[in-house]
Each structure stands twice: as C-alpha cells, then as structure tokens.
Specification:
seven-stranded antiparallel sheet, 50% strand, mainly beta, 2 helices, elongated
C-alpha cells in the first residue's frame, strides 16, 4: 500500500514538472525601450535600444518619417537590440512614428520628434511681392521670411526675426516672431513715389536687400495749352499741344508713358484725335493745320481717369479768292497761282477739287495737289464728249462756280 502511494506521488510530481515547463516555453517575448528620450536634434545620431525579456527571433523596426517609410534591422550589443536611424532621416525635423515588429507581430510602438539644430548656421530665405505698388497707403507689399537651420529645417516657433525697410530718409526696424515656420509682414505704401528697400535678419544673419517700386497713383485733372507758328489755315503748319505737369492726388508726377488723348471737335461736329505720352509728367502732341477756316475745341483725357480744361483755337483763311483759267479749247483748267497771307505762293500739296457738271448732273470729281501754287486739270475728249459743261472749283475752303462752257469735238 505504501508503495502504491509513493508511485502515485511520483507520477503527480512528474506531471506538474511537465506542465510548468510547457508554460515557460509558451511565454511570448516582449521588448522594453531602454532610452526614454523623446526629442532629438537634427543632424545628430539617433538610435533606439530595446531590451528583450526572452529569447526571440531578431526583431525589426518599422518607422514612418516625412521622407517615407522604411524597415530597419538591428545590431546586438550586450544582449540588447539597437536600431540606427538613417542619416538622411536624422537631418529632417518632424515627428517620427516607430513600430517594433517580431514574428509578424507589433511588440512595441511609439513616437519621437526631431527638432531644428540651432547650433548650425542660420539660413534666411525672403520673398517679397508684389514688387510694384501704388502710392497712397491702400496697397501693400508682403515680406515673407523663412529662417532655417543648416539642414534646411524651418526654425522653431517664435524665433526672432528683424524686418528692416527703407524709403527716402526713413528706416524702420520691426521685431517679428515666426509662426507656422514663417514670419511675414504687410508693408503699406507711403504717399510719395520712389524705391523701397527691404531686408531681414535672424540670429545675426542678414539678408540682401530686395527692392519694391512705389509708383504714382492715378492721375488727377490737368490743364492743356497750345502753340503754333501762325494762326492761318494753310494745311501745312503744325499746332503743338502740351499738358501741365500731370500729378496724382499726393503730388507725385505720374509715371512716364502715361497716355493722354487730345480730342478735337470741329465747328461741324467732326471729331479728330491726336495722342501723346508723358515724360516727366508732361505730354505733348501735334496736329496739322486745317486747309480752310476752322474753329477747333480741344480737350485732353487720361482715359477713364482724368481730364483737362477745354480750349478753343481759331484758324483764319489764308485766301479770300483765287484765279482760274481755261485754255486749249476749254480742255485745260488751270487753277492759280494761289497766294497766301503774305502774298507768297501756297505750300505744295494744297488740294484743289474740280467738280464737272452736265445739265446739273455731276459727271466727275477731279482732284489735284498744287505745285508752285498751280493745279492743272486736263479734260480728255475721249471721256468728256458732251458739247457743254460747267465746273465748281474748291480749294482752301473757298468755292467758285463757272458758267456753262461749250466744247467742240474734233472731227
């Protein structure tokens, strides 16, 4: 009996030993992160070390970085698993997520942050725009500054940036703080036109100056005047129009090249135009004298923006009458010589128009330009076959009508 009890006790002990061994062998491996560092400086070496609590296959580290995702293998030192983050990943700031994987299972996970390296030389990038604005304080140019470390990482929030801008005799310094990686500021235009220089400084690193041009604002009303060699309507001389110095409401002379239109209305309500562009605020234009007595009403415009006063210009006729004659059996009509206001011959190129009528019906309209004060017309028998014609001759705004003339046809 005692022997049977002893055998039963021995069997029970063996079963308990076997069951305990099975429990130990089924225990799953886990990994403890040795370092508790959550922040690393860009450019420095980054390693994650894990201590296993049991034997296991060699684990891998899966990381998610702004550069991408990668899977790292470990090196073993003193029984711990060490993962070295790639150098290019170590230089880029931001949050990095990691997952320790063993036997296709995630054993541990976490995050760490890479911050800018303030020990490297600061690099400052500036962006200024628009580069041209109008004077008057309603428009502005924006300076955007991006300070970075030596690895091109934006500096941390609230980094100090000094903004400097100069206009004429004024130099302004402003202290800014970075927000969302940038420091920006709106610089409104002054009332005067000119060139503005802008630069920034961060960590005693100064940038080059950037220019923005302050252009004059829109033109205001102005005056016009004219000058001419004489007041006669000879169809030859030039009338010159000029504006006053055109300025904006702040007293700035408008930009060179501003277009000014001169609208001329005749006494018969015909509209003529001539144009000029400003140089140093003054525009000039030219207009040929009329070839007959005329009254011009002139006004200048900067289209849709400003206008001038209205001026009236009178042109006197250079002749009160003229001579004409017929020859070659009335087949040749000679008009002139036409003389001007000093009894001189009129300039070459004066238009002479002859209208030919037969029984009050207009047959033809002929036109010639004077040469040495004369205009000569030839009436061909091949075309003018009627026995009588009359004529109306017009030049320099004066018209004369002839009597009906007889024409004999050659047999």
């Amino acid at each position: 009996m005692k022997k049977a009890i002893y055998l039963l006790f021995l069997l029970s002990a063996l079963l308990l030993l076997a069951f305990g061994t099975a429990l130990v062998s089924d225990k799953k491996a886990s990994f403890e992160l040795v370092s508790n560092t959550k922040t690393f400086i860009a450019g420095n070496r980054i390693e994650l070390e894990f201590h296993p609590n049991a034997d296991s296959e060699k684990p891998q580290l899966f990381i998610i970085h702004s550069y991408g995702k990668t899977l790292l293998d470990a090196t073993i030192e003193k029984g711990n698993y060490i993962f070295k983050i790639p150098e290019n990943y170590c230089k880029k700031t931001g949050e990095v997520s990691w997952f320790l994987i063993n036997e296709n299972e995630t054993k541990n996970s976490g995050t760490f942050e890479i911050v800018p390296n303030d020990t490297t030389k600061t690099v400052v990038e500036n962006y200024l725009g628009p580069r041209t604005i109008l004077a008057g304080g309603k428009e502005f140019t924006m300076m955007v500054t991006v300070p970075t470390d030596g690895f091109d990482n934006p500096k941390k929030e609230n980094t100090n940036v000094i903004l400097k801008h100069q206009f004429l005799q004024n130099v302004t310094n402003l202290n800014l703080k970075t927000k969302n990686f940038i420091a920006c500021y709106d610089i409104y235009s002054p009332n005067k036109s000119g060139k503005m220089l802008v630069s920034t400084e961060c960590d005693k690193i100064a940038t080059k100056e950037i220019e923005t041009e302050i252009y004059p604002n829109i033109a205001t009303n102005f005056t016009i005047d004219y000058k001419r060699n004489h007041e006669f309507a000879d169809g030859n001389q030039i009338t010159h129009f000029t504006t006053s110095s055109i300025k904006d409401q702040y007293g700035n002379v408008v930009s060179d090249g501003t277009l000014v239109s001169f609208l001329i209305k005749t006494k018969n309500n015909l509209v003529l135009k001539t144009f000029g562009t400003t140089i140093n605020g003054i525009a000039s234009a030219q207009l040929l004298h009329p070839d007959h007595q005329e009254v011009y009403s002139v006004k200048g415009f900067v289209t849709g923006i400003a206008e001038s006063n209205s001026i009236t210009i009178n042109y006197k006729p250079i002749i009160s009458t003229f001579n004409y004659s017929f020859s070659n059996k009335n087949r040749t009509v000679k008009v002139g010589p036409i003389t001007s206001f000093m009894n001189q011959l009129v300039p070459d190129g004066i238009k002479v128009i002859v209208k030919v009528f037969h029984k009050d019906k207009l047959v033809a309209t002929l036109q010639e330009d004077t040469s040495k004060g004369l205009a000569i017309f030839e009436l061909s028998e091949d075309f003018y076959k009627e026995k009588n014609y009359r004529f109306e001759i017009t030049t320099l705004g004066i018209s004369k009508q002839t009597e009906t003339l007889n024409y004999e046809l050659h047999k």
